[in-house]
Amino acid sequence: MKNVTDSFVSLGHWPSAGSLGFNTDILSTNLINLSVVLGVLIFFGKGVLTDLLDNRKQRILNTIRNSEELRRGAIEQLEKARARLRKVEIEADQFRVNGYSEIEREKLNLINSTYKTLEQLENYKNETIQFEQQRTINQVRQRVFQQALQGALGTLNSCLNNELHLRTISANIGMLGSMKEITD
């Protein structure tokens, strides 16, 4: 091994004019070395690089297909959701309209029942007033009758003497006796 390295070192000391050898100048050899390395990489790595790029391309295409399928599914779900939303909005409008009409019906029923109740209360009030008026009239008649009776009795007592009183009683007894005979 020592001989091989010595031979490369001794080659570096050869004169460059007119002979073949290795150029040990790093700056001038970089371009050549780089192009050789790239050429070898391209030649040997072309298959690997092509396989890597094909795999990457296939994964990207699969991802795009999956994304398209997911997009289509999302669009279908969105359309279904929009259809459900429209249906729910229509039902809500119907409920709202039916609710308003139901409220109006209930309002009219309540107003009508309130009017009927008020009419009944008015009738009860009028009946109560008539009853109270009749009762008051009857009380007044009773008092007037009592006062008239007391006045008549007072007048009779002051005008009647014992003899007239006895005749009136006898006449009344006679009338009662004749009525008894008629009824028998």
Automatic annotation (TrEMBL):
Keywords: ATP synthesis, CF(0), Chloroplast, Coiled coil, Hydrogen ion transport, Ion transport, Membrane, Plastid, Thylakoid, Transmembrane, Transmembrane helix, Transport. GO terms for molecular function: proton-transporting ATP synthase activity, rotational mechanism. CDD domains: ATP-synt_Fo_b. The keyword Nucleotide-binding does not apply. Signal peptide: none annotated. The chain crosses the membrane at residues 31-49. One of its GO terms (cellular component) is chloroplast thylakoid membrane. InterPro entries: ATP_synth_b/b'su_bac/chlpt. It is found in: Membrane; Plastid, Chloroplast thylakoid membrane. Residues 64-98 form a coiled coil. It is a single-pass membrane protein. Its main location: membrane. F-type ATPases have 2 components, F(1) - the catalytic core - and F(0) - the membrane proton channel. F(1) has five subunits: alpha(3), beta(3), gamma(1), delta(1), epsilon(1). F(0) has four main subunits: a(1), b(1), b'(1) and c(10-14). The alpha and beta chains form an alternating ring which encloses part of the gamma chain. F(1) is attached to F(0) by a central stalk formed by the gamma and epsilon chains, while a peripheral stalk is formed by the delta, b and b' chains. Belongs to the ATPase B chain family. HAMAP family: ATP_synth_b_bprime. F(1)F(0) ATP synthase produces ATP from ADP in the presence of a proton or sodium gradient. F-type ATPases consist of two structural domains, F(1) containing the extramembraneous catalytic core and F(0) containing the membrane proton channel, linked together by a central stalk and a peripheral stalk. During catalysis, ATP synthesis in the catalytic domain of F(1) is coupled via a rotary mechanism of the central stalk subunits to proton translocation. In plastids the F-type ATPase is also known as CF(1)CF(0). This is ATP synthase subunit b, chloroplastic. It comes from Uncaria rhynchophylla.
